[in-house]
């Protein structure tokens, strides 16, 4: 049913926790593809053996580090009916895949996205200490709104494999590659919302070195990359184009987006 692609970079203890959340799933109809862009630590053998041979662990030895190229390699190996991306510091609640499978089997939508939980934690110790958490509903997200800004975490989207023919992550983007990938997959298709918060997005302080969140130091490039994506994925209608203009204007940026 599922191919779960995990791109990882030098976070072995967090990756172990991610894999433990998959081992604990009540639905085991999945295969895991883990792609590491470094060979600086041993694979998590204990957790992998518990996946009963349903995994590929690949060390990517060419190209610059980064999740886009790793996810593309995972896509090349995936053969499940639905593909999921799971960040190496995030987890699924034990019943997540079972609930997701039951919903997907109803009408097999092309693109399904779900709600999630945010868990703030202290990563200066291992295992991390939970600090606070909340459930986040993104039921108000529409296909048009994703053309303006993306509020859907990468780990919350289920892609039917056939809609990803020719769709790949852009390794040249310095951030927002998951947004670009979603927009490319959406061409001519509608997003379907699933009211379930079985995905857990783990966060630590953005300035903490333990966090290792790519993009924290590239805030100065957010507008440039947004404009790049606006050009690459033109607004599907006038209302969306105006919403893009309004978002930029709220940040004090006035541009003519009539051709975006």
TrEMBL record:
State the source organism's domain of life.
Bacteria
Q: What residues does the Glycosyltransferase 2-like domain cover?
A: 3-130
Q: Name one Pfam family in it.
A: Glycos_transf_2
Q: Which InterPro entries match?
A: Glyco_trans_2-like, Glycosyltransf_2, Nucleotide-diphossugar_trans
- Could you tell me what this protein is called? Glycosyltransferase
Give the species: Pseudoduganella danionis
